[in-house]
Design goal:
Largest sheet: 4 strands, parallel
Number of helices: 8
Distance between the termini: 23 Å
Order of helices and strands: EHEHEHEEEHHEHHEHE
Radius of gyration: 17 Å
Number of strands: 9
Structural class: alpha/beta
Shape: globular
Bound molecules: zinc ion
Strand content: 5-15%
CATH class: Alpha Beta
CATH superfamily: Metal-dependent hydrolases
CATH topology: TIM Barrel
Amino acid sequence: MIKLKYCYHTHTFRCGHASGLDEDYVINALKIGIKRLGFSDHVMLPGINQSGVRGHFSMKEDYLSSIRKLQEKYKDQIDIKVGFEAEYAERFTDYYRDLLSSGKTDYLILGQHFDFDRSDNPHYIKQYADNIPELYAYADQVINGMRSGLFKHVAHPDLFVTMFKKWNQDCEKVTRMIVKEAVALDIPLEINMHARRFWRNKAGNLIYPYEKFWAIAGQYPVKVVVGYDAHHPSEFDNELHFVNKLIAKYKLNFLEDYAI
Ligand SMILES: [Zn+2]
Ligand SMILES: [Zn+2]
């Protein structure tokens, strides 16, 4: 049974689909023995308004300062970092670089929920039902994101399964593409704790973490981390059964400790 000492995937109410006080996430993380806690709310983007998906750009400073205050307040008990979960697109790279180089942001993780490159309106990956060219576009975006050097790890790399009701050969190919690149660049992949536990999946699409993805990952020496992807403080529980099963069954190279 693993015991998770870190979590670098945590949201706040600002994204519009998470709730709870920032401080309660810290308190609940402490209760389950987390020693390193990273906040990674959906990145606020200049000029892009996606209400209910990510906070308005005007909320960015409040987010950063709120987490910095908690970092200071709890510094003797837990190592807190502030970052963002962000999509890779060429047009955002300067903005992301500025976030990091300014020192206001400690880290970014890559969560490729939206395709920003193909249209000015962000397109949710999940809506590309059974669309094989878009599956490969997703893989390219994730690989380019990893190559950009901007991201510490890939959140839910198996997000693409939500485009499908059935796993297929292209899913397998894309899995190998992503995993091989992660090995080459030494970037960990995240087993995500949120979707499988909290999504109501009425359409019957596949959901992550998806076992076939991780079975293939187990064939490579890729580093694996776990993220709660908490959208409420109560999600910091110790219900790690599914994750334990994946790690043990496929002999995944799970990082017991991971510091950003
Ligand atoms: Zn979210
Ligand atoms: Zn995500």
